[in-house]
Amino acid sequence: MSALFNFQSLLSVLLLLICTCAYVRSIVPSILDRNKVGLLGTFWKLARIGERKSPYVAACCVIMAFSILFS
Question: 61 and 52 in contact (C-beta within 8 Å)?
Fold first, then answer.
């Protein structure tokens, strides 16, 4: 079953994208800052979510980890 049809997998992919984009922007900000519109602008927006909502994203990652480990 692909991640698009399984809700738990879709959420874990979304959380991984948010965390990865925030990490890449913290290391090399010029990659994501020059693409703020279009398809690549989505990655910039995910990085902004990861930066601004980091306590909530971290809590969701911990919850998702326990959910995947114990289900």
Answer: no
